[in-house]
Every structure is written in C-alpha cells, then in structure tokens.
Amino acid sequence: MQPVPTYPRKSLPPNAEPKPEWLKVRFPGGPSYLRLRRLVREERLHTVCEEARCPNIGECWEQGTATLLLLGDVCTRACGFCAISTGRPKGLDLEEPERVARTVQQLDLRHAVLTSVTRDDLPDGGASIFAASIVRIRELHPGCAVEVLIPDLQGNWSALETIMAARPDVLNHNVETVPRLYGRVRPKAIYAQSLDLLRRARELAPESITKSGVMVGLGESLDELLQLLRDLRAAEVEVLTVGQYLRPSAWHLPIVRYYAPEEFHALRDTALSFGFRHVEAGPLVRSSYHAAEHVTAGAGANYTS
C-alpha cells in the first residue's frame, strides 16, 4: 500500500485564510449553464448544485449535467457542513417525478443523478418519490442511467426496498466523515446505520452499483480515515468519492485544514489498493462530479446504460 503523505496540520480561524489556488473556480454563466437554469426554473425543480453551493456548478451545468434535488428544498436536519435550508417542509409533491423525468428527457441526459433533502417527517423518508422518479425516467427516456443519492431513511429498510425495487443503476449514500465526528457533522445520523444501508442495498439489488463519499478537512486523523475506507469496503461499496470540505458560511463547521492535491492522489491510490473499483479524489470532488464518467470507468460490465 502506498503511504499517504502527511503535511503540517494548521488550524484556521473562521473565514480568515484565502483558499489555495487549487480551490479557485470560474464564475458560472455560459449558454448551457443558462439554459439548464431556465429549464429547472420552468419545471419548478431544485438542484443540490445551487442549494448546497457546489463549487463545480459552472463546469457541470455548462456540460449539461446537474443533480436534481427531490422532495423540496427544506431539510428536516441541520448537519454542520450543509448549506441547504433547515425547517419544516410543506407536504409532498406527487407530481415531482413527472417533472423530473421530463427535465431529464429535455436535457437528453445519459446519466441522471437524483438526490433529496432529508425528510424525517415522511413515514418512508421520500422513498416512494425516488422510486417513481426512476420508473418515470426509464419510461420517458430509455437508456438513461439513473443514480440516486439517498438519505439514511432513519433505518427504514422497507423504504430502502422500495427504492431498490426500482433498480437504480447506482445507489449512493454518503457516510461524509469518520464516526468520531458524527456528533458535530451529522448529529442525527448513525455511522453503523449508514454502513448497514449500503450493505443492504447491495444485497437487495446486486446488479446496482453502490457508492459512497467522504469529506476531508474536518479534523479526522489518517488512521480514522483509513478505517473508514476499510469499513466501506467491508460493506462492499464499489465506488468512492473523496473531496475537501468547504465551509458554506460562518455558521457552519470550521475547516481544520486544507488537503493538498498530492494527498488526494495518495488517498486515491490507497483506496484502490483496498479494493474499490473506482475512486474519484480531489479538492473539488463532490458526490456527483463526473458521475457518468467515473462510474463507467469503475464499474465496467456492471454498468448497463
């Protein structure tokens, strides 16, 4: 196993130190970006790209790809890293799957990514909307692979069965960080439950690809990070994303340190040595960044689109 290089850890006062050069991105505004934004508005949909303030929004939208956010734009949880609004969501939009599928069709996507806010107020956590969206996309736009990035469903395995019965091409659930930091980063989540979800998803639909993601820079140790990778492999997760945590605002958790590009390269090599089929690791990597490309490269024969 290639050793992961270590760098001096530096504590950062809130919003005091400028981002390294490798974290700077262009301001979005190209023609494809504007077209996609208009279409999303017309269909009364939301994207995690906007709600979570993703740094890759300009690049991805200019390429005509976006991660659609199901179940509204208000989350029932208040995770320490996330910019999505927290509160009490209003009802359930049963027409959303139709609009989602129509948008995917109009964009002529080859690989659609669907995620959602966490809806702990719903008995099934919104699983029925995920499933209906998958089915309707397949009806309107055959040949488009569907990736779903789902919440933990509060351990409701019947709800997970509903999603997996729709046979998503990729089932993604992010563990986000090491278990020691869950109290601050994911206060309503349970690390073991997230691993169990990924394991069960694999058992329910062996032909689907399982995927997870983690942020670095929140104060995790190297040993903790490597154990997390081993845990994900023990749950038979095939695809991994690793990216730098970026603080959305002064109200969110501080960045403990920035990882250098060389560290991400070493983490990728180490994760591959653990048995992941594909690893996307870099400062700006997010769950859906280059999703079609790296899933195709990593899953090979399992990828059906």
Descriptive account of the structure:
This protein has 305 residues and is of the alpha/beta class. It has a single domain (21-302), classed as Aldolase class I (TIM Barrel, Alpha-Beta Barrel), CATH 3.20.20. Helix content is 36%, strand content 14%. It is built from 11 helices and 10 strands. It has an 8-stranded mixed sheet, sandwiched between helices. The chain has a two-stranded parallel sheet with strand order 3-4. The chain is globular, with a radius of gyration of 18 Å.
CATH topology: TIM Barrel
Helix content: 25-40%
Strand order of the largest sheet: 1-2-5-6-7-8-9-10
Largest sheet: 8 strands, mixed
Say which CATH homologous superfamily is assigned. Answer: Aldolase class I
Content of β-strand: 5-15%
Mind telling me which CATH architecture this is? Alpha-Beta Barrel
Characterize the overall form: globular
Q: Helical region count?
A: 11
The tally of structural domains comes to 1
Order of helices and strands: HEHHEEEHEHEHEHHEHEHEH
Key structural traits:
305 residues; disordered N terminus; alpha/beta; two-stranded parallel ribbon; TIM Barrel; globular; disordered C terminus; single chain; 11 helices
Q: Secondary-structure map with pairings?
A:
Elements: H1 31-42, E1 46-47, H2 48-51, H3 57-62, E2 67-70, E3 74-75, E4 85-86, H4 96-107, E5 111-116, H5 127-140, E6 145-149, H6 157-165, E7 170-172, H7 182-185, H8 191-204, E8 209-216, H9 222-234, E9 239-244, H10 261-274, E10 278-282, H11 291-299
Parallel strand pairs: 2-5, 3-4, 5-6, 6-7, 7-8, 8-9, 9-10
Antiparallel strand pairs: 1-2
Helix pairs in contact: 4-5, 5-6, 6-8
